[in-house]
Write a structure and sequence with these properties.
The strands form 3 sheets. The chain has a 6-stranded mixed β-sheet, sandwiched between helices. A 4-stranded antiparallel β-sheet has the order 2-1-4-5, with helices on one face. Strands 7-8 form a two-stranded antiparallel sheet. By secondary structure, the chain is an alpha/beta fold. It contains 11 helices and 12 strands. The structure holds adenosine-5'-triphosphate and magnesium ion (MG). The site of adenosine-5'-triphosphate has 9 residues, from helix 2.
Length: 287
C-alpha cells in the first residue's frame, strides 16, 4: 500500500515536472502533433463544440462551447469528475481535441506551435510541484534569462516577502524534497511567483481544494488579484472570491456545461450552482 502510494506520488511528480518543463523553453520529445503557426492572441480564445475522450467512446467532454475574451476571467465549477481539469488540459495542448475546435483569434490551436503557445501560459496546477533546489530556481525553473531581481519582484507581488525574510538564505534557501518544508499555501504562492516571473499573458489555474489557514487564505486572495490583474484567466474555482470575481462562470456537469452566467445570475437560475456554493465554497471559507 505504502509503496504503491509512493510510486503514484512519484509518477504524479514527474508528470507535473514534465508539464512545468513543457511550459518553459526546455525541449521535450512528445510534440508529435504540434503545428507550426506562431500563435497570436489579441482577441479571444474560443472552444467550439469540443468533444474529448481519454478512452475511445467514453466521452469526458461533450459539446463544450465558450469564449474567453482577452483580459477576461472565466471560472469553471462543478462536481468532481465533471471535466474541469480536462478542459484546462486541452487548452494547454496536452491532448488533441477529438471533435470541434479550440480557436485562438480564429486559428485552430491544433495548427499552432505548442511550444510558442505554452510560452504565453502560466499554469498553476491543483498539486503544486516544487523540486529540491532553492526558492530562486523553483521560481525561474533554471531559466537564467530570468534575473534574480525579477524573481525578487515576483516574490513581493505574491506577498511572500515576509516568508523569505525569515529565511537566513532568503531566496537562495533550499526547499526539501517535494517542498516538504513549506506549507501548502506558501507552495501556491511560489507557483504564482513562477507564473509572474515567466510573464505569462494567460493564467490557467486549477485551484487547490485543500483548506488553508485564514491568514494564508487572505494572502492568496491578494496575490491572486495581483497575479490576474490585466491577464486573461481560466480558473477552476473552489474559492468563493474566485467566482465572485469571474466575468463568466461555467457550471460543468458530467462533461457538459449545464449553466452559465455571473455569480448572482446563477444563484437565481441554477439550483445546482446554488447547492455547490453552499456545500463546497462556503464550507471552504469557514474552515
Ligand atoms: N488521464 C486520464 N485518463 C483517463 N481518464 C481520466 C484522466 N483524467 C481524468 N479522467 C476522467 O475524466 C473525467 C473528468 O475528469 P477531470 O479530471 O476533468 O474532472 P474534474 O472536473 O477536474 O474533477 P475534480 O473536481 O475532482 O478535479 C473523470 O471521469 C476522470 O476519471
Ligand atoms: Mg480537477
Amino acid at each position: 500500500m505504502q509503496i504503491s502510494e509512493n510510486v503514484m506520488q512519484i509518477q504524479r511528480s514527474f508528470a507535473s515536472l514534465k508539464r512545468i518543463l513543457e511550459l518553459t523553453e526546455l525541449p521535450t520529445e512528445d510534440d508529435t502533433y504540434t503545428g507550426t503557426k506562431i500563435p497570436v492572441f489579441e482577441q479571444e480564445i474560443k472552444f467550439e463544440n469540443v468533444w474529448f475522450a481519454y478512452k475511445e467512446g467514453e466521452w469526458v467532454l461533450k459539446d463544450i462551447s465558450f469564449t474567453i475574451p482577452k483580459g477576461k476571467k472565466i471560472a469553471l465549477v462543478g462536481p468532481s469528475g465533471s471535466g474541469k481539469t480536462t478542459t484546462v488540459s486541452l487548452l494547454c495542448g496536452f491532448y488533441p481535441v477529438e471533435k470541434g475546435r479550440i480557436l485562438i483569434d480564429g486559428v485552430p490551436l491544433s495548427e499552432m506551435d505548442f511550444r510558442e503557445w505554452r510560452k504565453k501560459i502560466g499554469l498553476i496546477l491543483q498539486d503544486v510541484y516544487l523540486f529540491p533546489g532553492s526558492i530562486l530556481e523553483n521560481v525561474r525553473v533554471y531559466n537564467d534569462q530570468i534575473s534574480e531581481d525579477k524573481v525578487q519582484k515576483a516574490i513581493s507581488i505574491v506577498q511572500l516577502d515576509d516568508f523569505i525574510k525569515k529565511l537566513p538564505e532568503g531566496i537562495n534557501a533550499e526547499l526539501a524534497e517535494r517542498g516538504q518544508n513549506v506549507s501548502q499555501g506558501e507552495k501556491q504562492l511560489i507557483s504564482f511567483a513562477r507564473a509572474l516571473a515567466f510573464e505569462a499573458e494567460i493564467i490557467i489555474m486549477d485551484e487547490a481544494t485543500a483548506s488553508i489557514d485564514p491568514q494564508t487564505e487572505a494572502k492568496i486572495q491578494r496575490s491572486m488579484e495581483n497575479l490576474l490583474s490585466g491577464k486573461t484567466a481560466l480558473v477552476v474555482a473552489h474559492r468563493l472570491t474566485s467566482v465572485l470575481d469571474a466575468d463568466e462562470i461555467l457550471y460543468f456537469s458530467d462533461g457538459r456545461i449545464t449553466a452559465r452566467g455571473k455569480h448572482n445570475e446563477l444563484l437565481q437560475t441554477s439550483p445546482e450552482y446554488q447547492k455547490l456554493v453552499e456545500l463546497q465554497m462556503l464550507k471552504v471559507q469557514d474552515e
